[in-house]
Design a protein that fits this description.
264 residues; 38% helix; 6-stranded mixed beta sheet
Length: 264
């Protein structure tokens, strides 16, 4: 696969070359019940960045994230992920490309009577594909050991034998994060990951998510209605207003002070 390299302004006044993880170009999406969910949105996200998509409930954040994940097909424009346009890839290549990303949905939780450990273990199928996963699970003990480590790091060993349907909202998100760790994606797309959590639990989960993304050098895009999440956890904020790009700014110390003063 060929890495996509774009030129961005450097602090010195010249340009610097950055490998692009996600490139959104003139993205537009219409739904029957709204005028326009996304309206000519464009931006690039570099490999390793943690980016907050912020805006109101009707701003278009979830639609944009689902376009990036290949779940929703845009009406115009395109999204390329690590140089590949998911909407135009043949089915077999698309399946391989989708293994590079994980979608974490804060509005849903793991369901069923399966144990947390089995749930995390099964997520490795997204990494290897069904056939290779079946072979590794049947003949390799290391895969189960890896699942134990992922679950311990995200939620602790006390959840190994708990069924996923019995989990609290925070535990459910922690187990979902363990499954993401097991998948080992290059890109994590987290839609409202703290929407069901109180502020204390939300901060605990976001600390885990950001720590994993930064230590493993994953690219992370997460949506939030809360400006505080962008200030605390993102390298960069992208704000949407009624489907249009309203703000795209880095979150350094000066920018954080400015945004806090605007929010107060």
């Amino acid at each position: 696969m060929v890495a996509v390299v774009h030129e961005f302004p450097a602090n010195s006044g010249g340009t610097s070359s950055v490998v692009v993880a996600v490139c959104v170009e003139k993205l537009t999406k219409n739904f029957s019940n709204v005028e326009r969910a996304l309206d000519d949105v464009s931006f690039d996200i570099a490999v390793g960045q943690s980016v907050a998509l912020i805006g109101s409930d009707s701003a278009g954040k979830s639609t944009l994230l689902r376009c990036c994940a290949g779940i929703i097909t845009p009406d115009a424009g395109k999204v390329t992920v690590f140089g590949q346009d998911l909407a135009t890839l043949p089915a077999r290549k698309r399946e391989g490309a989708l293994r590079q990303l994980a979608f974490l949905d804060g509005h849903s939780k793991p369901q069923g009577e399966i144990s947390c450990l089995e749930y995390v273990l099964n997520s490795a199928s997204k990494r290897f594909g069904k056939l290779k996963f079946w072979f590794k699970r049947k003949f390799s003990k290391s895969l189960r050991e890896e699942a134990c480590l992922c679950l311990t790091n995200a939620a602790g060993s006390s959840l190994f034998d708990r069924t996923v349907s019995s989990l609290s909202p925070l535990e459910a998100q922690q187990v979902a994060l363990a499954a993401v760790m097991m998948q080992q994606p290059r890109l994590i797309l987290a839609d409202a990951p703290t929407v069901t959590l109180d502020r204390v639990s939300a901060d605990k989960f976001m600390d885990l998510l950001i720590k994993y993304a930064r230590e493993s050098q994953r690219t992370l895009i997460f949506t939030s209605r809360e400006l505080v999440d962008a200030l605390a956890y993102a390298d960069r904020a992208i704000a949407l207003l009624q489907g249009r790009l309203e703000l795209d700014a880095p979150i350094g110390a000066e920018e954080a002070r400015m945004l806090r003063s605007m929010a107060s």
